[in-house]
Q: What sequence folds into this?
């Protein structure tokens, strides 16, 4: 529900309320992700340094962590964790980021991160990736890295750990970090990849983000030290200059090694000592750069004109960052600040819901990159940006002039406390990777971590301090600053900086948009009818789950388990989803995601539902599947009864408030012109429609369709679908303390029988028509940006799950080869993608898709490589090692996921009505393990035929495919012949 805290670190939570398709971007410095030595010596002795993370802090320790410092200064933190079983998560944080670079070195920290993942001086280029693949590591998710303004973090999640592969992985990673292969050849290759990343990220949103950061953080390195770097500085990078950067900043006393997983902490600490203990620094530790302070003399206002972009406003109160010891008192301040933000956000949202001057407005206070303490309002005006700015400033003025009521404070505190208690109840299921990431983040922002119980206990004591007067003083503090700045983004000039400055200086009238207290109780919802009768119960063979059927046709699959103590997951599938609409019929499927839930239930609108669910674990999420609509939630045993009443109420007693529909319409129109600003935006909007031969169920709505949306049309489309059957319920979780049969009987089981809405031709899904040359689409962005896609139709349904698994392996092999040639060897793309889509809701509509963002000159190169790889897979069987390197990571991902309820709920959708679903779910791991080289070749021969192949290129407007080919020929961007691996 609105204003629910979202965890930013284990110890403290912050959130940003997002409301609709037109939500403003949070324009702050971004982290750059890269997908990603030896010289081990005898382990040195360790210096007992105590809990270095908690120096001078009185926050209760999380005693599961063990800390240490090696004699050379390497700090480490290790702990045992068995979620998922058999996995160990390794993080190595280097205390260096983009703000540590000189002007000539911009982008070096990120470039070095790329080079590090190529390998070390002691292993061949690219071999580390292959070794980890054999261990079951998925490149890009299990092995990755991130560069921010203040740190570079290397991550490795190693599944199915053995003493041997853990030792080997520690050796590889330490060697890569300590002695990366920095040759001219490697620098040239990775420079091309980073340049591709820079090109692919370029566009109006990046330009707006860069300009906004430069304005908000004027006088600070943060304003012009984006981790991606610049074309000029990267173009001059050489092996000696990058090696010098590494030598200066990659030192043992700037390293923190964090390891969490299914291993004894003493063994993990021993491995840290073994592979990092003999690391020696060259010279003294350099002094950190001065990150700067906000410049009070810089202009307070900035207008950014960017064609085809919607109106957007950023209002920022900027304060210098202060280093603080993280104590209980500091934690109190942070929580009070969060409550103050939540109070304002609820008022802003209340005004938007009731028809204000903006589509969405949110405030968020952040401590950014150890540089700025900033409170920022992000606003998407409806039309009059001055009125929107005045209204938001008015809400803030009220919050800093008049104390909130205790009831308002308690509402927000209840949300935080409910979140923290949920964390406590699920503490034993905390994934090791998340714990490792949280600790690294704490180190970076100079905070500590505590246990979930410590978190709950601290907040219980802290909320007692949240009185109206204290919250008034806290609001004054976070909305006051020596520097206030505003940025207006507009598609056409709106008066320049002077107009923004004048609006910022205009007098403010306090706006009282506080929520009126509403009396909402679940007793207000009428009964659904006589509780239903159970007609049959049985178990699904091979599963710890019970199938229940009611007289009205509702079926349920219930799994009572302790996988997640105190948590219950619910998924109610109803109707026929995309199949409820014919392929060529107009539809409003695109309106459901936000407006269907927001339009209310029975006697309650959004505000009443917020009141009903305040401080409780009750949700309502909506999605559309190929063969069902879904209402899902994450709840807890004590709230399950009311959770099911809320879901049943949405189906049986929907409300049709008009404001959310109008808000959705305006949101879509506000963001519509973004849809062709970059190749990626064009793909996001249109790709699924193109692949299904412009099937109306997946084709994006055009502007006329959006403009024509009315509350009456919305209701006419959705009312019969909410009332249609069948209904299938999944309830998985901790159910020992509840009578789930009675809950089901009195809610969904009590509904009258429902008719099925499925037109005769709703089952058909076509594939894009094959063509000898690529189709062409256009974007209105930079001339150096393009994209290329090619795809082959495959299949769908449950008749042949073995082939579905085989195609996943085929796609992984194709992707691995494409990555090696298009990115690693030629630097033509940052992230080529190969994906196998096999829908279970239709017996057709599957495809194998190959695509990449590129420069126009590389379009022919992409198609040549893709064609050669496909032809080689058809003609030759893959080798044993290549099959292993690509199949084992898939199998490991499945194995890890299968320990959780989310995995089984997803795989068992539809299992109460079709026994093939459970059979396919149970055989998933064995089906993947059974894929052979002959299977891969057979599937390639069956599907990767040129006669069925569809291709499309997205080019800058005005450019032809011949123009792109000419650019490729002029630069020598041609494909070479592919071979087997």
A:
């Amino acid at each position: 529900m609105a204003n629910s805290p979202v965890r930013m670190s284990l110890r403290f939570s912050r959130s940003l309320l997002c409301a609709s398709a037109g939500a403003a971007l949070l324009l702050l410095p971004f982290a750059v992700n890269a997908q990603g030595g030896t010289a081990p010596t005898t382990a040195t002795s360790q210096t007992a340094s105590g809990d270095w993370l908690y120096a001078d802090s009185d926050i209760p320790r999380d005693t599961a962590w063990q800390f240490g410092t090696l004699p050379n200064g390497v700090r480490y933190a290790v702990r045992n964790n068995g979620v998922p079983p058999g996995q160990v998560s390794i993080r190595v944080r280097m205390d260096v980021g983009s703000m540590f670079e000189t002007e000539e070195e911009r982008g070096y920290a990120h470039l070095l991160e790329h080079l590090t993942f190529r390998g070390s001086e002691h292993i061949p280029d690219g071999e580390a990736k292959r070794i980890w693949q054999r261990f079951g590591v998925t490149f890009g998710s299990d092995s990755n890295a991130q560069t921010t303004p203040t740190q570079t973090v290397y991550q490795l999640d190693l599944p199915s750990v053995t003493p041997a592969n853990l030792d080997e992985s520690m050796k590889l990673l330490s060697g890569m970090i300590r002695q990366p292969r920095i040759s001219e050849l490697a620098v040239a290759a990775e420079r091309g990849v980073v340049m591709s990343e820079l090109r692919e990220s370029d566009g109006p949103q990046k330009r707006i983000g860069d300009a906004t950061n430069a304005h908000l953080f004027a006088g600070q390195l943060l304003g012009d030290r984006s981790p991606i770097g610049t074309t000029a500085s990267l173009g001059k990078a050489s092996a000696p200059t990058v090696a010098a950067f590494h030598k200066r900043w990659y030192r043992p006393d700037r390293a923190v090694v964090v390891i969490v997983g299914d291993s004894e902490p003493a063994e993990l600490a021993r491995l840290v000592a073994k592979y990092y203990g003999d690391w020696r620094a060259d010279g003294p530790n350099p002094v950190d750069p001065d990150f700067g302070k906000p410049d009070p003399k810089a202009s307070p206002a900035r207008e950014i004109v960017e064609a085809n972009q919607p109106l957007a406003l950023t209002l920022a109160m900027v304060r210098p960052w202060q280093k603080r010891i993280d104590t209980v008192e500091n934690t109190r301040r942070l929580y009070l600040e969060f409550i103050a933000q939540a109070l304002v956000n609820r008022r802003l949202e209340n005004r938007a819901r009731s028809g204000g001057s903006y589509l969405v407005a949110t405030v968020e206070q952040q401590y950014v990159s150890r540089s700025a303490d900033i409170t920022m309002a992000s606003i998407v005006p409806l039309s009059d940006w001055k009125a929107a700015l005045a209204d938001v400033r008015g809400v803030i003025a009220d919050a800093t002039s008049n104390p909130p009521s205790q009831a308002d404070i308690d509402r927000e505190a209840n949300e935080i406390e409910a979140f923290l208690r949920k964390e406590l109840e699920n503490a034993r299921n905390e994934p090791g990777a998340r714990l490792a990431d949280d600790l690294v983040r704490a180190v970076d922002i100079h905070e500590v971590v505590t246990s979930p119980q410590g978190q709950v206990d601290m907040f219980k004591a802290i909320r007692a301090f949240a009185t109206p007067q204290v919250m008034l003083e806290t609001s004054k503090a976070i909305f006051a600053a020596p520097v206030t700045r505003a940025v207006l983004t507009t598609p056409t000039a709106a008066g320049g900086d002077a107009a923004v400055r004048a609006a910022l200086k205009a007098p403010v009238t306090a706006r009282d948009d506080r929520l009126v207290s509403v009396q909402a109780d679940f007793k207000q919802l009428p009964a659904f009818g006589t509780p239903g009768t159970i007609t049959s119960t049985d178990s699904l063979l091979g599963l710890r789950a019970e199938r229940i059927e009611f007289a009205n046709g509702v079926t349920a699959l219930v799994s009572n388990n302790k996988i997640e103590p105190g948590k219950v997951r619910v998924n109610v599938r109803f109707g026929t989803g995309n199949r409820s609409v014919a392929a060529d019929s107009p539809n409003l499927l695109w309106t459901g995601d936000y407006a269907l839930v927001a339009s209310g239930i029975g006697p309650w609108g959004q505000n009443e539902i917020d009141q009903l669910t305040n401080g409780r674990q009750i949700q309502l999420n909506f999605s559309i599947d190929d063969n069902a609509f879904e209402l899902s939630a994450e709840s807890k045993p004590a709230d399950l009864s009311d959770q099911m009443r809320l879901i049943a109420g949405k189906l049986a007693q929907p409300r049709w408030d008009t404001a959310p529909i109008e808000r959705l319409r305006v949101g879509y129109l506000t963001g519509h012109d973004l849809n062709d600003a970059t190749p990626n935006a064009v793909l996001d909007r249109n790709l699924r429609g193109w692949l299904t031969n412009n099937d109306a169920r997946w084709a994006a709505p055009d502007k006329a369709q959006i403009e024509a949306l009315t509350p009456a049309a919305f209701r006419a489309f959705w009312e019969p679908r909410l009332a249609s059957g069948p209904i299938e319920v999944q309830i998985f979780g901790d159910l020992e303390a509840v009578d789930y049969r009675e809950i089901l009987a009195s809610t969904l089981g009590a509904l009258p029988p429902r008719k099925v809405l499925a037109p005769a031709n709703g089952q058909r899904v076509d594939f894009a028509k094959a063509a000898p040359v690529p189709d062409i689409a256009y974007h209105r962005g930079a001339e150096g940006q393009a994209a290329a896609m090619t795809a082959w139709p495959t299949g769908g349904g449950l008749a042949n799950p073995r082939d579905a698994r085989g195609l996943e392996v085929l796609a992984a092999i194709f992707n691995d080869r494409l990555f090696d040639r298009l990115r690693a060897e030629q630097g033509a793309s940052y992230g080529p993608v190969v994906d196998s889509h096999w829908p279970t809701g239709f017996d057709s509509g599957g495809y194998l898709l190959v695509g990449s963002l590129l420069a126009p000159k590389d379009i022919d190169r992409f198609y040549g490589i893709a064609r050669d790889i496909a032809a080689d897979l058809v003609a030759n069987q893959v080798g044993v090692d290549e099959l292993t390197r690509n199949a084992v990571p898939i199998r490991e991902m499945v194995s890890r996921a299968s320990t959780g309820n989310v995995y089984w709920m997803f795989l068992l959708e539809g299992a109460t009505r079709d026994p093939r679903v459970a059979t396919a779910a149970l055989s998933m791991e064995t089906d993947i393990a059974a894929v052979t080289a002959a299977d891969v070749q057979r599937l390639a021969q069956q599907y990767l035929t040129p006669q069925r192949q569809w291709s499309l290129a997205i080019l800058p407007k005005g450019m032809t495919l011949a123009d792109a080919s000419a650019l490729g020929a002029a630069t020598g961007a041609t494909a070479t012949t592919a071979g087997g691996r």
